[in-house]
Each structure stands twice: as C-alpha cells, then as structure tokens.
Specification:
two-stranded antiparallel ribbon; globular
C-alpha cells in the first residue's frame, strides 16, 4: 500500500486535484518531480547501410528495365538498350519496330532530358488495333507513378467522354506526344516532342486508326505540325500530315482544361460527335 504522500505525488503528476474535506487543513503542495534533461546527442546519428537502388531511379548507364510483362519481347528479339536517338534503336529504325520492340525502345530512351526525372515511361494503353486513337500532351504525376496514360481526374473525365460515345477505354488506344513526364507538369517543349515523334508516328502506323482524337493544344499542334491556336483548329476534320492524309484528325480540348473550364464541355462534345461520325464511315 502506498503512503498518503506518495499518493498525492502521483495524483499531482497526473494533474488531478487532491480532495480536501471542508475544514481540514490544506496539504502542503507537492511538486511533481522534474525529469532530468536529455543527455546531449553524442555526435551525428549513425548512417544506415545503403539500400539497393530503386530501378525506377536508375542512372542513364544502368541496364534498361525489362518491358511490361503484358507485352514480352518476341522469342529471339533483341532487347533495346538506352538510345540517344529514337530514329535508330538496336540497329533497326523505329519505323521498322513491332509492338514489343517499340515498347522496349521507349522504356530505354534517353534521347532528351526528360528521362532524367522520370519514374516510369508511359507508352500507351488500350486496343492496339483500335478504330479510335486518343493522343494527349504528356504524362502527369499520376501517370509517371503508374506508367498508364490519363489517370486521375482528367483520366476519369476522358473515360466519361468515351462512355458517352458508347466506347470504353479498352476499345481505344490512348497515348501522349511524349512518353516521359515534363517536370512540374509543364507543357512538353518542341524539342521534346520532336525527339519522341518517331515513337508516336510508329504507334499510329501500327494501330492504323480510323480517327485520331488529339486533345490539348500541344498534342494538336504537334500532330498537325502547325502553330495555329486550338480554337481555330477544332470543329473540323484535318488530315494527318505524316500518314499520307489517310488518317483523319479531330482536335479538341484536353480533359484537364475541361475540368477548369466546364463551359467548354459543349464544344468538346461537338468535337466528339464529329469524330464519331468520321469513325463510322465505311472504310
């Protein structure tokens, strides 16, 4: 059993007032013991052993990460090493690459400074024989983490836009003009879209879409090779200049812009309906 003085000391440390019957002399105040000050830190904290480097942050000289397991390299196909020029990869020009080699070439590309800050390349997703091809500007932070195009709020809005047309994301092929995230989610620069251009051109050749929906100013100007403002380019059909004019292009607003400017959704819907009418033409 603890003594009365010890009991009062414990209650004082807990901040609980001691009950004193009326008329009884008040007990002498009990000061809670003060914890001694911590001993000074004996020098800098120990440095933990270095962890194994994250492959996503491997330096340029590191081995190229393996392609996505969903699209393994074909038997006997050479894996592409880091390429300083997209026009020629592993001894073969980009325009001669099949899907697996093309995806591996994108994963190993170091042709522009964007590779220095990327976590993952964003090759594209969806049906590789789709009638529709949706091309955006560049990956954002969410895409850089997941390796998939158009995720997050803008991606959900794009999915809703496609759903309104009777399409799912799995029925179209979605990609961007550049395959690495620009720092700070800034717009891709012309030199960056130029270096990534052969990859996008080869994707269009392989998909052979019936219509290209270009979303956002950078994507539209890159694909149509023009500096005209998006407002003057949307609402009508354009020929894809690098495809011999065989693939029609429809320009519209980026879903991220539509989230900031809902009033533009009506115009975007008109563009989507135009693209749907083009895709529905007889071959």
């Amino acid at each position: 059993m603890i003594s009365g003085a010890e009991r009062e000391r414990l209650l004082a440390r807990m901040g609980i007032a001691v009950y004193v019957p009326r008329g009884a002399p008040a007990p002498a105040p009990v000061s809670a013991p003060v914890d001694p000050p911590p001993a000074p830190w004996p020098g800098p904290p120990p440095v933990p052993p270095a962890a194994a480097p994250d492959p996503a942050f491997a330096p340029v000289s590191a081995p190229v990460p393996a392609p996505d397991a969903r699209h393994p390299l074909e038997p006997g196909a050479p894996a592409a090493g880091p390429s300083s020029a997209p026009g020629a990869t592993a001894g073969a020009p980009v325009r001669a690459l099949a899907w697996p080699e093309l995806e591996a070439a994108v994963a190993g590309c170091v042709a522009c400074p964007l590779h220095r800050s990327r976590r993952r390349t964003v090759f594209g997703a969806g049906a590789r024989d789709a009638d529709w091809m949706v091309i955006g500007e560049g990956p954002g932070a969410n895409e850089d983490r997941s390796g998939e195009p158009f995720v997050g709020r803008a991606g959900r809005l794009l999915g809703a836009m496609l759903f309104a047309l009777g399409l799912s994301r799995e029925e179209v092929f979605i990609t961007n003009t550049v395959k690495c995230r620009p720092p700070g989610n800034r717009d891709p620069e012309p030199a960056e879209t130029e270096r990534c251009g052969p990859f996008l051109e080869r994707q269009i050749e392989l998909v052979e879409p019936r219509v290209i929906l270009a979303v956002g100013r950078v994507a539209v100007q890159t694909i149509l090779d023009t500096n005209a403002p998006l407002a003057r380019l949307r609402g009508r059909e354009h020929p894809y200049p690098r495809g011999g004019g065989r693939v029609p292009v429809v320009a519209t607003y980026h879903p991220a812009y539509l989230l900031r400017t809902p009033i533009a959704k009506r115009s975007a819907w008109e563009d989507l309906c135009l693209a749907r009418s083009i895709a529905g033409r007889s071959p």
